[in-house]
Amino acid sequence: MQQDARTDWDARIARRSDEDRAFAFPELDPPKEVSAVGGIGQVTIDWSPVDGAVGYLILRGTGERGPLEPVDHHSGDVLSVPAPPYVDTTVTPGTPYRYAVASVPEVTVHGKPSHTVGAVPLVADGTVPAVAVTVDVVAEGTELHRPWEPMIGSERLSQLLCTDRTGGHEIGTELEDALRRMRNELGVRAVRAHAIFHDDTHVVDGSSYDFSVVDAIYDKLLGIGLRPVVELGFMPRELASDPTRTVFEYGAIISPPASYDAWHDLVRALVQHLVDRYGLDEVLTWDFEVWNEANLEVFWSGTKTEWLQLYDVTAAAVKSVDPRLAVGGPASAAAGWVDDLLIHAKRYGTPVDFISTHTYGSPPLDVRASLERHGYGDARILWTEWGVTPRHFNPINDSLFAGIFLLRGMRSAAGRIEALSYWVASDHFEELGRPPRFLHGGFGLQTVGGVAKPRYHALTLLSRLGPDELPVTLSGDGAGSLVEAWASRDRDRIAVLLWNLTLDQSKADGAAELSRNVRLQLPGIDPSWEATATTLAIGIGDLATAAAGLPDWPTDDQLRDLKEQTKLVSTPLELHDATVELTLPMPSAVLVELRPRRG
After folding, report:
1. Which of 293, 306, 469, 513 is an active site residue?
2. pTM of this prediction?
3. CA distances from residue 44 to 85, 92, 130, 298 in whole angstroms, order as listed
4. Can 564 be counted among the known catalytic residues?
5. Is 593 known to be catalytic?
6. pLDDT per residue as tens digits for the range 452-483
7. How does pLDDT run across 205-214, given as a tens digit for each residue?
C-alpha cells in the first residue's frame, strides 16, 4: 500500500464519530430485579438479565452508605461474569453487606449500578448445609452442547518437529502424543497455536516463499486427525517494519509490516498453497484468525488503527483465494476490541465470519450481544484462549481447583458460543522459557512426561456426558451458584455431573465451610439400575498432591506410579428410593452414572 493511501486510510478511521462511539457502547439500564441471600460462608447474588449486556459487574459495600466496589475473585483478568447467579465467598461471616449489579455493554465500561440489597453470610455452626438436585430422567431432553470439542490451544506447532529434550523427554514426540490424546480421548477437532510465520518456519525465502516447514507441521497435525486454526502471525523478519520488537523467549516479531502489500501477498500465497495441497473442501473447514492479542502492547507494537488495517488486508487476502474461507478476529485479550472491529467492519464492508477473543479466571462473557448490536448476529463466537489464570508459572494451573473451574466455564459456555478453547494441551510450552521442573504451574492440561492434570480429568468427565441434556432443578444453600449440575442421557445410561466451586481463587486450596451435602433425586429411574461415582477432589485425581516430595524431574518409574495414583476410578454408589446421597467439598466434582445392572 502506498504511503498516501495509508495516510488517507488512517484519516478515515480517525474520523469515527461520537455517534459511532455511542452506538458501540450504549448506556444500559441496570437489572430491575436483584437479590442477595446469605448462606454458610457465602452470599448468592441473583438478578434479572438485561438485553444488550455482554456481562455484569457485581458491586459490594459495607455500612449504610459506604462506597460500592467490584467484588474481586482474584482472577487476574476480567471480573465481569456473563450471567446470574454469582457466589461471593470473599466475605467475612456475620458481616452485613450491600450488593448491586451493573450491566456491562462492552468489557471496558459498565452502566449505573442497580438498587442495593443487603445480605449477611452465615457463620458455620458445625453442620454441613444441604443442596437438593432433581433430574427429570424421563424428559425428552435437548442437545447437549460440547464447547470443549471444537478446539484446544497449543505451543507453536513448529515444536512438533523439535528433537530437543526437556526433563529427558523429547519435545516434538510428546507434544504430538499430547495432541493425539486430546483427539482420541476427548474428541477435540482442531488446534490453535501462535507463530506460523515465525522465523523457524522460514516462509520467506528471498523474493519467493517456502512453505515446506508449514507443510511438515500441518501434515503431522492432519495425520493425528486434527485441523489447524491458522493464526496469521507473527511478522516474518523480512517483512517487519521493526524486527527488533519481539515477544517471548523465542523472539516472535510483533511489529506491523513495512509494506501491507507484501503482507497481503504472503497471506494470499499461504492460503492458496494450503488449498492446493490439502484441497478446498478441507481448507473450507479451517478458520483463519488475524494476529494474537493486538490490544496488548506486548503483542503488537503498532496502533489500533494499524491493526484494523492489518485485519482489512488479511481478510482481503484470504477471501481472494475463495470468498467462502472463514476469517475473523480480533483474537484479543480480555474480550477487548470486539466492538471496535465490528464497527470498523460494518462501516467499510470488511468480512467477519467469526469473532474470537480471550479471557481467564471467569466464565466467558456473552459477546453475542455485541454482534447483534452491530448486525453480525450470525457470526460464530470462538474463545480461542481461556483458562483459570493468565499467568504462566502459577501453581493454580496444577491445582484441583483449576479442574473444577474448567467444568464451570464449559457449562456456562454451552449453547451460547461455538468453541471454548483451553490454553494449552501440554506443558511443552516455552513462551517464557522451557519448563524448569515437572510441576511448575504450567498452562498444560498434561505434564512433560504425559501425566494428566486435574483439568484434563475434568474434560474426561465432560466427555462422558451423553448427547441429550436433561432438565435439572436445584435448591438449598448455594444451589446453582456454589453447587451446579449437568445431567444427560445416552441410550441406557444417565450421567449427572455435579461440582462445588467458587470463582474466588483465594479459596483454591479448599474451604471447609463451603462443603455441601447433596441429595441427588432421580424420580422415574428404574430402581433396579446400579449407580457409580467417579470423583475428582483434593487427593483424588489430584496430581499436585500425589507428586509432593518427588524430585524436580521424576524418573520413568515415578511417572508410571503417578499415572496410576491419579487416574480416575469409578466406585459403586447406593441408589435408594431413586436418590443418591453425596458430600461435595469445595473444590470437587462427581460424575454419577446410572445404568442397568449387569448380570
Report:
1. 293
2. 0.95
3. 7, 14, 15, 37
4. no
5. no
6. 999 999 999 999 999 999 999 999 999 999 99
7. 999 999 999 9
